[in-house]
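Appendix B. Raw example, untouched.
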Amino acid sequence: MAGVNRALSESRHLSKGVGSSPCIFVSHIFVDKSAATAVGSYITSRGDIDIYLDINDADLQDAVSKADAAGVTRFIERGLSKSTHIMCLVSASTVGSWWVSYELGFAKNAGKHLSTMKLKGEVALPSLR
């Protein structure tokens, strides 16, 4: 059985909660959304592993369009709270993202399993310690 993107439907997927199957929060900067989508599709195709990909969270995208930072924060935290793991996609652009740093800090503080995937290009990987 393939995994699902829990961000596609709040009532259908995010309500599954932690415990029913692993869920990886795919953290990325917006300019890397194509890579994030490809990584997410690969993960869900490999079996019963879900993802949370924020570009598919309608509530989060609505908050982004309204420049509602409190709403963006709330919906990111909601996605992270329903995830068991976080995978940070790192590119040269990631260094400039305040949101990726926030996601990593929140996830680490919540005891989530952290991983990093370096995308193509020259970029030094940050320390997660």
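End of appendix B.
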